[in-house]
Amino acid sequence: MAEDRSPAGFRCGYAAVVGRPNVGKSTLLNRLVGQKISITSRKAQTTRHRVTGIVTTPDAQVVFVDTPGYQMKHRSRLNDRMNRAVTQCLADVDATVLVLEAGRITDADRAVIRLLPAGARVVAALNKIDRLEDRDALLPQMAEVAALFPFAAIVPVSAEKERGLDALVTEVRALLPEGAAMFGADEITDRDERFLAAEFVREKIFRLLGEEVPYATTVAIDRFEHEGAMRRIHATIYVDRENQRAILLGAGGSRMKEIASTARIDMERLFGGKVFLEVWVRVKGGWADDEALLARFGY
Ligand SMILES: Nc1nc2c(ncn2[C@@H]2O[C@H](COP(=O)(O)OP(=O)(O)OP(=O)(O)O)[C@@H](O)[C@H]2O)c(=O)[nH]1
Ligand SMILES: [Mg+2]
User: Fold this and answer.
1) Cα(83)–Cα(71) distance, rounded to whole angstroms?
2) Which of 17, 18, 20, 22 has most ligand 1 atoms within 8 Å of CB, for mutation?
3) Nearest CA to ligand 1 atom 2
4) Is the shortest distance between the CB of 47 and ligand 1 below 6 Å?
5) Which 8-state DSSP code applies to residue 3?
6) In sequence order, what are the residues at sequence separation of 6 or more whose Cβ sits closer than 8 angstroms to the Cβ of residue 274?
7) Of all protein residues, whose CA lies closest to atom 11 belonging to ligand 1?
8) 214-246, pLDDT tens digit by residue?
9) Coil, helix or strand for 246?
């Protein structure tokens, strides 16, 4: 008999994680995987790329695919690409996790539900239940959610407090086809270190700066070299306008130093080795609407 690495009844497949901006999709992905691979912040539209997080249990391998928050308020070529990434992902997966915020179902959530392909197998994750003051509010909310779409299951969770995550994986597993694992049990993402390094820098910009600059910013890795156990990484932050460059640098370059040092700590934790990180800032006007630049920046 041919050797099969997976026992009978093993299930494996892709599960999209979708929802409006800021509902906690990336936090959920990270907590499911147990490592930070997708960046998060309090600001909407932090995620711009498709990022997978692989969860392997004794009876399943779920490849969760984090996606940008779907939104229609702000228009740019970058936003169009992000929305397209969501619809494309929905068409490619075996199952979907629709993330909603407990206590706050909005028109933006309904817009995401309208994107779900007919016949899609969807689990609704009602996230941030730790914020609910009244536990009794949960049941009527689940009834409200159930009326929106024929969900396979509705699971209350708290990504941040890691509540309900096993139940969520169980419900998603039930929607996947039977089959052998596609990835090794120790693999956690299909993204490489270069991508993750750029993302960690971008996360610090989202966390440390105000409402304008993060959206005018992207990050490219110019150099990524191994020197023994050490990684030498050169990154460039591109901004839209000259005044944003000054804001990003801060007095005497202080803000830039904080961005670089906090990003480096994240890299060292995930990569498991020392990182030497240098970050520059350059102005590239109109990059978010320039197809050629977007392609160059990996969008
Ligand atoms: N209280 C609470 N906050 C949460 C929970 N999950 C996520 N958050 C917070 O919600 C905010 C948004 O989280 P993200 O994971 O970045 O949200 P997202 O849906 O990926 O957002 P976009 O990528 O911008 O679409 C962050 O401030 C998180 O800390 C939760 O279970 N409870
Ligand atoms: Mg996100």
Assistant:
1) 7
2) 22
3) 128
4) yes
5) -
6) 229, 230, 231, 268
7) 42
8) 999 999 999 999 999 999 999 999 999 999 999
9) helix
